[in-house]
Amino acid sequence: EVQLVGSGGGLVQPGGSLRLSCATSGFTFENYDINWVRQAPGKGPEWVAAFAAINRGGGGTYYADSVKGRFTISRDHARNTVYLQMNTRKPENTAVYSCNVYKYWGQGTQVTVSA
Fold first, then answer.
1. Three-class SS of residue 50?
2. H helix intervals, 10-77
3. Cα torsion 79, 109, 112, 52: sign
4. Suppose 106 and one of 6, 17, 70, 101 were both cysteines; which one would form an S-S bond, judging by CB atoms 3.0 to 4.6 Å apart?
């Protein structure tokens, strides 16, 4: 059974940083694209970042233009966990952040950027 467990959200001040985690199980970690997607209040889902599958994209990382240079996706193979390091500047980063693999979704974790 595929499971994705997201965590790490919270309140952060503009200019602060936060690290989100997505603990995975039930599939071969390296063989699937792993995505972070966010949804801000009143808006549709926005893809944020991804790890490509090793056998398709060589395990490369990809970012939306809106977060490039400020967010970093990383993973721990031993823990089957993907992380999203966020260096926030703007309240526009306030959203529910969810991890996604194929048709499976982790529960979202709320990030609120506010002074």
1. strand
2. 54-57
3. positive
4. 6
Task: Give the CA count within 13 Å in the CB-facing half-sphere of 97.
Answer: 29
Taking only the tens place, the pLDDT of each residue in 13-25 is 999 999 999 999 9
Three-state DSSP class for residue 26: coil
pLDDT attached to residue 57: 65
Look up tokens 């240079």; give the residue: 69
Residue 112 to residue 21: CA distance in whole angstroms: 16
Residue 16 phi/psi, 5° resolution? Answer: -85, 180
User: Which amino acid is located at 93 in the chain?
Assistant: N
The span from the CA of 35 to the CA of 98, in Å, is 8
63-91 in b/e form (b: 16+ CB < 10 A) is beeebeeebebebeeeebbbbbebebeee
